[in-house]
Amino acid sequence: DSLQPAVGYNWGAGEKKRVMAIERCCFTASALLSLVSAAVIYLFPGNLASIFMQEASGSFFEGAAAALRLFSFTYLTRWFSFATQSFMLAVEKPVPASLISVSTALVFPVLLVILLWPLGLTGLWLNFAGTSALAAVLAAVILWRVPELGKGKEKQEGIS
């Protein structure tokens, strides 16, 4: 989000190369930070849980650590839809940005709650990672279909 002014300014000035350079840095930094976060959460769930649960014991603490481990998978792909949504807003594409936002906040979680219901609490924790993965796929499709970015078809309908 903090790069939106720089991206928007350069987009308005017609500096597509600069926009792409800024976004390349943004996407790379987001990916690296998220992958490191996923690894730390996955490898040290007990240590992280103990920060918030100093007096927890036994199965409750073990459940929290297991939940964190499942939740860590969210970080593998969540960065991509966040970065894409921010990018779409910066380059004056509010419809694709809104589509990512609504899908991530409502459509995908509700769909996955229904699909993962049989897994109980495990399904609830996997919902985050599933939503993240679906949002990443949606973001990739959106990036590919926006013609002004040099990809996809020359004339698009429905994405503005």
Descriptive account of the structure:
The protein is 76% helix and 0% strand. The chain has helices at 4-12, 16-43, 45-52, 58-72, 78-90, 94-116, 121-145. It is elongated. It starts with a helix and ends in a 15-residue tail after the last helix. The relative contact order is 0.12.
Uncertain stretches of 5 or more adjacent residues? 151-160
Mean pLDDT: 90
Give the strand content. Answer: under 5%
End-to-end C-alpha gap: 20 Å
Task: Give me the count of strands.
Answer: 0
In total, the number of domains comes to: 1
Q: What is the share of helical residues?
A: over 70%
> Any idea what the radius of gyration is?
18 Å
| SSE arrangement, N to C | HHHHHHH
Helix count equals 7
How does the helix and strand content classify structurally?
mainly alpha
Morphology: elongated
The biggest sheet amounts to: none
Subcellular location: Cell membrane
Keywords: Cell membrane, Membrane, Transmembrane, Transmembrane helix, Transport
GO molecular function: antiporter activity; xenobiotic transmembrane transporter activity
InterPro entries: MATE_fam (IPR002528), Membrane_Transporter-Flippase (IPR052031)
